[in-house]
């Protein structure tokens, strides 16, 4: 009996206590993901930590729905959060399953995972050694097959006038059998919604491609896991997770053995690591912008115009015969100009902050939603895509109506677009900090420039 067969021996009983211990072990194994780069080390306040957003304790515009919309429309990686939310719900439902059902789905321990990983690695090395033979079989019967030059071939070359690149006439091929032209059911022009049988067949194909045994159909939640495999794990899944071939095969081998949540260990580690280390910091930094990109570019342009105007005024006064004190007038343009430029590089428009501190520009995908207050208590809550659904098609949004409508919107409308209220107090504190820091930089830089121009002797040219 080989090592892979030992892994698929009859499962033993598992209790709720074992399930909780398994979940704790998974979390402890991923401890480096959480503690390796915390929210504080990324410059993110504790109030906007990843766990707080997932728990739903943050307010607009930093809610869980805002996070998912950011991943869907900006970072294009919504499948990680969709899978993560489904997994959290699945752990709760699995722990509440009857004791008899839990006995059919034992824990996928780290020891079993290491055993299967060793077997898969050995098979991968064996496959690499067989690569030349596979290539030879692949090109067999084609024009790329390496064949020895025979006498008939030499005579054909001579008949072609001695041209080594001449193509000899091909012999007519026989008629193909009629069944070779039949379309596969997956390529049929008649499309229909996927059924449980379709999900099961797709999952069976994924298990077979990974070299895993057929799973036990009597295990709890087996039909649901077939849908998960078809949606997130399979190589051609519509919401395919960013897994290596090794991790994908490892997950498929584990799922063919059990439906215990521990079978998703590699997939969960990959999705959660991406969410915590990359997506969450990007979302928080992106959410600190109180204006849309055209508005921020407009504010930066105004800032540079103010700085240019200040230099022009200071230069004219320095070349004239006016008293040196008049050159300090340029500081009235230097300070706000530098203030606006520095704040715009942090994603803030100081005009919006000054006149409407508790406001931010509504996101493009919320502008054209129905005028119905959503679950978050602000317009645009009704989404064109049910992105919270654990199952469904891919996360493509290019065909949604708002994409074309927002693209046709002129720049002036985008600059002065619709605004919504900021309810998150931590975000307001961040805006206060950015405004004060940019103001200090503007004051210091303006004072230095003013001192330099005041120290220049008067030109007296006019």
TrEMBL record:
Keywords: Membrane, Transmembrane, Transmembrane helix. InterPro entries: RGS_sf (IPR036305), RGS_subdomain_2 (IPR044926). Gene3D superfamilies: Regulator of G-protein Signalling 4, domain 2 (1.10.167.10). The chain crosses the membrane at residues 297-319, 434-456. Residues 155-185 are annotated as: Disordered. This is RGS domain-containing protein.
């Amino acid at each position: 009996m080989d090592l892979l067969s030992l892994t698929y021996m009859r499962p033993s009983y598992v209790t709720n206590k074992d399930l909780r211990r398994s979940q704790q072990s998974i979390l402890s194994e991923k401890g480096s993901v959480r503690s390796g780069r915390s929210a504080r080390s990324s410059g993110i306040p504790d109030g906007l930590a990843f766990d707080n957003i997932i728990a739903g304790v943050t307010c607009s515009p930093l809610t869980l729905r805002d996070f998912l919309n950011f991943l869907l429309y900006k970072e294009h990686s919504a499948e990680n959060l969709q899978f993560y939310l489904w997994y959290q719900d699945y752990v709760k439902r699995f722990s509440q399953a009857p004791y008899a059902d839990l006995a059919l789905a034992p824990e996928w321990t780290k020891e079993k995972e290491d055993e299967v990983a060793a077997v898969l690695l050995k098979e991968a090395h064996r496959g690499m050694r067989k690569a030349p033979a596979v290539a030879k079989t692949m090109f067999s019967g084609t024009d790329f097959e390496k064949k020895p030059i025979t006498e008939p071939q030499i005579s054909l070359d001579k008949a072609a006038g001695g041209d080594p690149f001449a193509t000899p006439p091909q012999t007519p091929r026989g008629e193909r059998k009629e069944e070779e032209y039949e379309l596969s059911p997956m390529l049929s022009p008649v499309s229909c919604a996927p059924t449980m049988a379709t999900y099961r067949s797709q999952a069976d194909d994924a298990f077979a491609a990974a070299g895993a045994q057929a799973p036990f159909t009597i295990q709890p939640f087996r039909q649901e896991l077939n849908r998960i495999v078809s949606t997130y794990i399979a190589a051609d899944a519509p919401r395919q997770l960013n897994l290596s071939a090794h991790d994908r095969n490892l997950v498929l081998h584990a799922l063919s053995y059990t439906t215990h949540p521990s079978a998703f260990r590699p997939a969960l580690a990959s999705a959660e690591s991406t969410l915590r280390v990359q997506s969450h910091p990007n979302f928080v930094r992106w959410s600190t912008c109180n204006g849309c990109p055209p508005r921020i570019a407009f504010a930066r342009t105004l800032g540079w115009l103010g700085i240019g105007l200040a230099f022009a005024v200071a230069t004219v006064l320095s070349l004239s015969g006016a008293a040196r004190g008049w050159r300090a007038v340029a500081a009235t343009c230097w300070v706000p100009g530098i203030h606006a430029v520095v704040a715009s590089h942090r994603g803030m428009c100081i005009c919006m902050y000054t006149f409407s501190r508790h406001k931010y520009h509504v996101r493009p995908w919320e502008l054209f939603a129905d005028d119905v207050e959503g679950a978050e208590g602000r317009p645009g809550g009704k989404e064109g895509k049910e992105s919270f659904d654990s199952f469904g098609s891919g996360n493509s949004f290019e065909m949604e109506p708002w994409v074309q409508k927002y693209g046709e919107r002129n720049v002036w409308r985008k600059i002065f677009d619709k605004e919504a209220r900021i309810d998150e107090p931590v975000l307001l504190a961040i805006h206060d900090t950015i405004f004060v820091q940019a103001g200090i930089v503007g004051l210091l830089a303006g004072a230095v420039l003013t001192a330099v121009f005041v120290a220049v002797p008067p030109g007296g040219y006019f």
